[in-house]
């Protein structure tokens, strides 16, 4: 690495980004100093172990990453609008589609889902926090600094450019010389460790910390989907850990795992990547199913139809998700027997998914439907996701896949499942739980503008891509020649992308507008909800529940409201509450991970070792720590409860 | 957390008495589940690549039976002594507990010493990580196990210091128990390495 190559140069867009980054940093430092907020930032956020605050930080990062990935998408659409465009060159285009994919899956969809589950799951099961609050903070900061490391690649050293799947041999030293793919290997590793710990944390939380009376079959559907998602994380992410470690060895230490000579096998990477990668898409879609289940049930005013079948189908999908990975490379040439087997397992996933679709439809049947923004996202999910699902079954037919493979047909398919599934769910969940997070409702009028702009834009953008794919346009091509007949549909797709961008801007404006003028939620239960999170104040006091609620049936809070008129707490029942202490260690340990990771990216091993030593120091200090948290006395609880319930 | 966090169950073994300990132990079992997936992936990688030796040596030409047998004996014995440490802990005997943990540590350190010797020997014969896909996967699989054992040694030292400082409490007992789970797990992984890497390598 030469010093002259340290900063990325030569592109006006990059210089503009440099200026924007410096200005933003100066701005943040100025605002924090001017309003004397440094201490607040450290005490309330950087050192917090409160699952709700950690969840909020995840969601803020996810929205920022949605912006970053969205700008990447708009740049790509701009380049492809007309034939022979000179807006981006091939290398720059390669970097942008790589970061777009990686960021959207790992640094947008994952943290958005994990953020919502952080906020909601402990509340839904009647717990005061997660099983391991300290670990939870560490998970977040590892994700944060992993994402930061990945994002600085576009101004320092250069971005990865081998696609979000980073297939070998392209991603190896033979064909990718720069540090870009080192960033990919190291940054994903750091945030992946955080995700694995989140999976363990929430599995233990859900298994062990449910309120009395909440049997497994009385758990809210969202909590069920998170439980199964955690199992997927625990068994899928170690595969990514290994795959990325092998990639790191190949790139930094010239080992021969995926190389072209000395026995290396590049297809091994594709297998390892997708053994993680396919469960990964269910890691982001199962929680989405959970969110839709909650929203549909609440706004149809009915108990979820076919609860047991829903649970069974999540488990079925999770099981099948581990035995379909070869469908990502049917064209590898594994032979008819292997391809047929994976073709059948892939199509089999349509069965439990279909069960779920019908269950949502039957939940709606004869319901008193309220068309809130969250409900609109959920209703739009059903037809759009079905389009994605049906084209998925088309792709699952191995023989036909030879035609569709790596064409825009595939691009359209997975955007229809990931956007109509996961992104719609994130927006539905954001609108639905927003009052619980911040104590005010996101403006419904602006919310509906976002919904219609984004949903229509989404269809205008991606529906034409099915046809572009059938017409022969392949993914990752940075330009195309005139006269292929692709231009009109590409123009349409770009128009759709712009509409989605406008929808996103309206959402951001809505966040600002609602913070200033939005309706305050004084009841804690603005939607007439059914599950325990609505039994708390909005936003909940940091211990969540003054006394642990007792669950009598599914839809615990709904039953409480019907039987007792709500969740009542008698002051004489209050006992001192035990809570975990804040800690700054997860933050600085993650900084150490970042430093070590940066050292590895540039092969500055001395720096990497310094970072590693600080990580070890953090582990040792944690081992010797003798902090058992603290108790909140009853008088303090009384005072906080009265303050939180002022409006109720 | 809450009251439940400090629900103290007198009838359970010391390491299981607080709710926090029960959560930690379950969490660690689940972590070991993830470790199983991690090592399974490394084993799969090795089994895919172990006959792809390129221009380098094959497994049969390389492996030294004597060193591997010594390593195996040291590690299997250390797992037994680790079990004895837990046995002493359940009987409430600090001295026995610490003595057996120290024996475990020394056996583990012996294992690592022999493993490093073995690796140096291979490198001197020209069999490095960079030589072939077989050797890359061999060094990463066996090296990952060795790194785990080294971490276990460091971890056990920290826990012995805490035992000396704080005595045998519900908290320190839980820590000893968890590190013992980790240690036995590494033993199990080694049995697979011994079978699938060394024995298979010398047969085929």
Automatic annotation (TrEMBL), chain A:
Gene Ontology cellular-component terms listed: plasma membrane
EC class of the enzyme, as a word: translocase
Which UniProt keywords are given for this protein, alphabetically ordered?
Cell membrane, Copper, Electron transport, Heme, Hydrogen ion transport, Ion transport, Iron, Membrane, Metal-binding, Oxidoreductase, Respiratory chain, Translocase, Transmembrane, Transmembrane helix, Transport
Concerning SUPFAM superfamilies, the annotation shows:
Cytochrome c oxidase subunit I-like
State which pathway it belongs to.
Energy metabolism; oxidative phosphorylation
What is the protein's given name?
Cytochrome c oxidase subunit 1
Q: What's the short name of a Pfam family annotated to this entry?
A: COX1
Instruction: State if Iron is listed as a keyword.
Output: yes
Q: Where in the cell is it found?
A: Cell membrane
- State the EC number(s): 7.1.1.9
Checking InterPro entries in the record gives:
Cyt_c_oxase-like_su1_dom, Cyt_c_oxase-like_su1_sf, Cyt_C_Oxase_1, Cyt_c_Oxase_su1_BS, Cyt_c_oxidase_su1_bac, QoxB
Protein function: Cytochrome c oxidase is the component of the respiratory chain that catalyzes the reduction of oxygen to water. Subunits 1-3 form the functional core of the enzyme complex. CO I is the catalytic subunit of the enzyme. Electrons originating in cytochrome c are transferred via the copper A center of subunit 2 and heme A of subunit 1 to the bimetallic center formed by heme A3 and copper B.
Membrane topology, record value: Multi-pass membrane protein
Give the similarity note: Belongs to the heme-copper respiratory oxidase family.
**GO molecular function terms listed in the Swiss-Prot or TrEMBL record:** copper ion binding; cytochrome-c oxidase activity; heme binding; oxidoreductase activity, acting on diphenols and related substances as donors, oxygen as acceptor
Q: Where are the transmembrane segments?
A: 12-35, 56-76, 96-121, 133-156, 183-204, 224-249, 269-292, 304-330, 342-362, 374-396, 408-430, 451-471, 491-512, 587-620
* Catalytic reaction equation(s): 2 a quinol + O2 = 2 a quinone + 2 H2O; 4 Fe(II)-[cytochrome c] + O2 + 8 H(+)(in) = 4 Fe(III)-[cytochrome c] + 2 H2O + 4 H(+)(out)
**Keyword hit for Cell membrane:** yes
TrEMBL record, chain B:
One Gene Ontology MF term: cytochrome-c oxidase activity
Q: Which family does it belong to?
A: Belongs to the cytochrome c oxidase subunit 3 family.
Report how it sits in the membrane: Multi-pass membrane protein
Q: Which residues, by range, are in coiled-coil regions?
A: none
Q: Which UniProt keywords apply?
A: Cell membrane, Membrane, Oxidoreductase, Transmembrane, Transmembrane helix
Q: Which CDD domains match?
A: Ubiquinol_oxidase_III
Gene3D superfamilies, per database record: Cytochrome c oxidase, subunit III, four-helix bundle (1.20.120.80)
Report the enzyme's class at the first EC level. Answer: oxidoreductase
Q: What is this protein called?
A: Quinol oxidase subunit 3
Species: Geobacillus thermocatenulatus
Identify the InterPro entries for this entry: Cyt_c/ubiquinol_Oxase_su3 (IPR024791), Cyt_c_oxidase-like_su3 (IPR000298), Cyt_c_oxidase_su3-like_sf (IPR035973), Cyt_c_oxidase_su3_a-hlx (IPR013833), QoxC (IPR014246), Ubiquinol_oxase_su3_dom (IPR033946)
* Biological role: Catalyzes quinol oxidation with the concomitant reduction of oxygen to water.
Entry-linked Pfam families? COX3 (PF00510)
E.C. number, please? Answer: 1.10.3.-
């Amino acid at each position: 690495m030469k010093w002259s190559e340290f900063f990325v140069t030569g592109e006006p867009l990059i210089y503009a980004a440099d200026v924007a980054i410096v200005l933003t940093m100066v701005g943040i430092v100025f605002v924090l100093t001017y309003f004397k907020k440094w201490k607040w930032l450290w005490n309330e956020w950087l050192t917090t172990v409160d699952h709700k605050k950690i969840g909020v930080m995840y969601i803020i990062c996810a929205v920022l990453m949605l912006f970053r990935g969205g700008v990447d998408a708009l740049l790509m659409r701009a380049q492809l609008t007309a034939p022979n465009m000179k807006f981006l060159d091939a290398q720059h285009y390669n970097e942008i589609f790589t970061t777009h994919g990686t960021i959207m899956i790992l640094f947008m969809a994952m943290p958005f889902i994990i953020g919502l589950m952080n906020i909601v799951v402990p509340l839904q099961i009647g717990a005061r926090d997660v099983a391991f609050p300290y670990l939870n903070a560490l998970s977040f900061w590892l994700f944060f600094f992993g994402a930061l490391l990945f994002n600085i690649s576009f101004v320092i050293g250069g971005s990865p450019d081998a696609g979000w799947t980073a297939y070998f041999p392209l991603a190896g030293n033979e064909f990718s010389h720069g540090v870009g793919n080192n960033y990919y290997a190291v940054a994903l590793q750091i945030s992946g460790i955080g995700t694995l710990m989140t999976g363990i944390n929430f599995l233990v939380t859900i298994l062990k910390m449910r309120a009395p009376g909440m049997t497994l079959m009385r758990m809210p559907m969202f909590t069920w989907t998170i439980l199964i998602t955690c199992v997927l994380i625990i068994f899928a992410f170690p595969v990514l850990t290994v795959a990325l470690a092998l990639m790191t060895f190949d790139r930094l230490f010239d080992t021969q795992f995926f190389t072209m000579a000395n026995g290396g096998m590049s297809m091994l990477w594709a297998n390892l990547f997708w053994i993680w990668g396919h469960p990964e898409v269910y890691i982001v879609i199962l929680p989405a199913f959970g969110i839709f289940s909650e929203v549909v049930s609440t706004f149809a005013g009915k108990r979820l139809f076919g609860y047991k079948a829903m649970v069974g189908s999540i488990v079925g999908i999770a099981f099948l998700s581990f035995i379909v990975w070869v469908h990502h490379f049917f064209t590898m040439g594994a032979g008819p027997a292997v391809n047929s087997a994976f073709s059948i397992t892939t199509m089999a996933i349509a069965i439990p998914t279909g069960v779920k679709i019908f269950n949502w439809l039957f939940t709606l049947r004869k319901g008193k439907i309220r068309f809130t923004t969250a409900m609109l996202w959920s209703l739009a999910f059903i037809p759009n996701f079905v389009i994605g699902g049906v084209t998925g079954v088309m792709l699952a037919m191995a023989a036909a896949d030879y035609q569709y493979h790596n064409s825009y047909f595939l691009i359209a398919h997975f955007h229809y499942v990931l956007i109509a599934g996961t992104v719609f769910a994130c927006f539905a969940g954001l609108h639905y739980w927003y009052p619980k997070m911040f104590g005010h409702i996101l403006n419904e009028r602006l919310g509906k503008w976002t919904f219609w702009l984004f949903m229509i834009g989404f269809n205008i953008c991606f529906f034409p891509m099915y046809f572009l794919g059938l017409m022969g346009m392949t993914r990752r091509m940075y330009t195309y020649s005139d006269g292929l007949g692709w231009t009109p549909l590409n123009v349409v797709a770009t128009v759709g992308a712009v509409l989605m961008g406008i929808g996103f801007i309206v959402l951001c404006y809505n966040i600002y507008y609602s913070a200033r003028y939005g309706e305050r939620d004084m009841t804690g239960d603005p939607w007439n909800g059914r599950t325990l999170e609505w039994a708390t104040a909005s936003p909940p006091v940091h211990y969540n529940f003054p006394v642990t609620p007792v669950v009598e049936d599914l839809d615990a809070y709904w039953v409480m409201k019907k039987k007792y008129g709500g969740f009542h707490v008698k002051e004489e029942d209050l006992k001192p509450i035990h809570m975990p202490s804040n800690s700054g260690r997860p933050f600085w340990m993650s900084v150490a991970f970042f430093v070590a990771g940066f050292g590895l990216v540039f092969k500055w091993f001395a720096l990497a070792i310094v970072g590693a030593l600080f990580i070890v120091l953090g582990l040792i200090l944690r081992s010797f720590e003798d902090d058992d948290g603290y108790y909140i006395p009853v008088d303090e609880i009384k005072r906080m409860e009265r303050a939180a319930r002022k409006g109720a | 957390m809450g009251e439940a966090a400090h629900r103290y169950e007198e009838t359970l073994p010391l390491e299981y008495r607080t709710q926090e300990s029960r959560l930690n132990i379950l969490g660690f079992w689940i972590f070991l589940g993830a470790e199983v997936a991690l090592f399974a992936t490394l084993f799969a990688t090795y089994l895919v690549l172990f006959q792809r030796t390129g221009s380098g040596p094959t497994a049969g030409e390389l492996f030294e039976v004597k060193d591997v047998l010594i390593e195996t004996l040291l590690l299997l014995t250390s797992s037994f002594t680790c079990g004895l440490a837990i046995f002493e802990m359940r009987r409430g005997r600090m001295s026995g507990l610490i003595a057996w943990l120290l024996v475990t540590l020394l056996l583990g350190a012996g294992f690592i010493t022999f493993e490093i010797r073995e690796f140096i020997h291979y490198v001197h014969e020209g069999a490095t990580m960079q030589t072939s896909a077989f050797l890359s996967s061999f060094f990463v699989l066996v090296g990952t196990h060795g790194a785990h054992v080294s971490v276990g040694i460091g971890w056990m030292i920290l826990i012995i210091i805490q035992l000396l400082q704080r005595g045998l409490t519900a908290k320190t007992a839980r820590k000893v128990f968890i590190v013992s789970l980790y240690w036995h797990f590494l033993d199990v992984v080694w049995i697979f390495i011994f079978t699938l890497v060394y024995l298979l390598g010398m047969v085929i």
